[in-house]
Amino acid sequence: MLQCLREASAQFLIVGAHALAAHGLPRATGDLDVLVRPDAANASRVFRALAAFGAPLEAHGVSASDFTTPGTIYQIGLPPRRIDILTEISGVSFDDAWSSRIELPVLGEPLAFLGREALIANKRAAGRPKDLADVLALEAPGDDEPSAR
User: Fold this and answer.
1) Residue 42 and residue 36: Cα distance in Å, rounded?
2) What is the pLDDT along the chain (149 residues), one digit of tens a residue?
C-alpha cells in the first residue's frame, strides 16, 4: 500500500504505533495508520493508489472526494494487518504534521513519519490510556534520535 501511495505521488505520513516505533518505542498494534493530505488533488492520488493496491473501493462505495472530508477513516483488512487511511488526526493539522515530519529509510525507500512533538500532541489529544502511556514514554529522558526498524 505504501509503495502504491509513493508511486501515485500522494502526500502521506505514517502515524500511530508505527510512528512511535520510528521514534524508538515499538509496541504491539493491530493496524497501520496512514494520514493523507485532505485536498482534492491528493485525494485523487490516494484513490488511484488504493485502486492500484486492489482495495475494494466500489464495493465499499468509496470515491476520491471521501479523502477530502475531515474525519474520514477508510479501513482495509483485519487486525493485525489492517490499514487505516485517515484524513485527520487529533491535535495536529496535516500541514503541521507534514512540516515536522521525519523521513526514515524503510526497505531502501524514504518514508515520512509523524515527528516527535506532533506525535506527542496527537497522542495527548487522543487521550486513551495507551496513548497517554505513549506520551510518557516519548517524554521520558533518553535517546531522541529516530531509528528505522
Assistant:
1) 8
2) 999 999 999 999 999 999 999 999 999 999 999 999 999 999 999 999 999 999 999 999 999 999 999 999 999 999 999 999 999 999 999 999 999 999 999 999 999 999 999 999 999 999 999 999 999 999 998 755 555 43
Where do the domains of the chain lie, and which CATH numbers do they carry? 2-139 (3.30.460.40)
Furthest-apart CA pair in the chain: how many Å? 48
| Cell triple for 63 | 470515491
The count of other CB atoms within 10 Å of the CB of residue 12 is 25
Q: Determine the length of the chain.
A: 149
- pTM of this structure: 0.93
CA distance 32 to 114: 13
